[in-house]
Amino acid sequence: MTVNLYDHVESIPDFPEKGIVFRDILPLMANGEAFKQATAELAQFARERGVEMVVGPEARGFIVGCPIAYDLGVGFAPARKKGKLPRPAVSATYDLEYGSATLQMEHDAIKPGQKVLVVDDLLATGGTILATIDLVEQMGGIVVGCAFLVDLKDLHGMERLKDYDVKALMEFSGE
Ligand SMILES: O=P(O)(O)OC[C@H]1O[C@H](OP(=O)(O)OP(=O)(O)O)[C@H](O)[C@@H]1O
Ligand SMILES: Nc1ncnc2[nH]cnc12
């Protein structure tokens, strides 16, 4: 049976005192059937593009990215928030819907020419995923796909990803 993934995303107005509608995907991850279906759909998108490595940003990109990598039988490399990695790193700074941040990856996490899927739970302004793409490209990786559970249409992240092959399983607009 097919699960309606929208039934597993909760919309929370004004959380956490930031004046935005927060789209909470933790209920989806907490539901075995929904999480498995979402993972399978994004893994199929990746398989069709010959993905050799999956990269996801901290923190929720790890949760979505790891089972996709496992399903494909390829590796997962994390893009971590600044200051967490023990080895030399590449860095990219970006603006968020709320605030700004720097992401880092170990400098040899991706081999030149490797086909990479970048994945996150949610696309808002696109800042996080563009920084993740920047890190992969600094190492010579080829981003063959970007995958999300949710696209927040009103924040126009998809337009900033127009040069990439993008898949989002759900779209939300307004309230
Ligand atoms: O498209 P953007 O405007 O960049 O926003 C999307 C990002 O925002 C959220 O992460 P957050 O920065 O809240 O970090 P977290 O996963 O550690 O909670 C979300 O998980 C995405 O990574
Ligand atoms: N509106 C939102 N809901 C959930 N996660 C987010 N990350 C950035 N903006 C978000």
From TrEMBL:
<dbReference type="GO" id="GO:0006168">
    <property type="term" value="P:adenine salvage"/>
</dbReference>
<dbReference type="GO" id="GO:0016208">
    <property type="term" value="F:AMP binding"/>
</dbReference>
<dbReference type="GO" id="GO:0003999">
    <property type="term" value="F:adenine phosphoribosyltransferase activity"/>
</dbReference>
<comment type="similarity">
    <text>Belongs to the purine/pyrimidine phosphoribosyltransferase family.</text>
</comment>
<dbReference type="GO" id="GO:0044209">
    <property type="term" value="P:AMP salvage"/>
</dbReference>
<keyword id="KW-0963">Cytoplasm</keyword>
<dbReference type="InterPro" id="IPR000836">
    <property type="entry name" value="PRTase_dom"/>
</dbReference>
<feature type="domain" description="Phosphoribosyltransferase">
    <location>
        <begin position="32"/>
        <end position="166"/>
    </location>
</feature>
<comment type="pathway">
    <text>Purine metabolism; AMP biosynthesis via salvage pathway; AMP from adenine: step 1/1.</text>
</comment>
<comment type="function">
    <text>Catalyzes a salvage reaction resulting in the formation of AMP, that is energically less costly than de novo synthesis.</text>
</comment>
<comment type="subunit">
    <text>Homodimer.</text>
</comment>
<dbReference type="Pfam" id="PF00156">
    <property type="entry name" value="Pribosyltran"/>
</dbReference>
<dbReference type="InterPro" id="IPR029057">
    <property type="entry name" value="PRTase-like"/>
</dbReference>
<dbReference type="GO" id="GO:0005737">
    <property type="term" value="C:cytoplasm"/>
</dbReference>
<keyword id="KW-0328">Glycosyltransferase</keyword>
<dbReference type="GO" id="GO:0006166">
    <property type="term" value="P:purine ribonucleoside salvage"/>
</dbReference>
<keyword id="KW-0808">Transferase</keyword>
<keyword id="KW-0660">Purine salvage</keyword>
<protein>
    <recommendedName>
        <fullName>Adenine phosphoribosyltransferase</fullName>
        <ecNumber>2.4.2.7</ecNumber>
    </recommendedName>
</protein>
<dbReference type="InterPro" id="IPR050054">
    <property type="entry name" value="UPRTase/APRTase"/>
</dbReference>
<dbReference type="GO" id="GO:0002055">
    <property type="term" value="F:adenine binding"/>
</dbReference>
<dbReference type="InterPro" id="IPR005764">
    <property type="entry name" value="Ade_phspho_trans"/>
</dbReference>
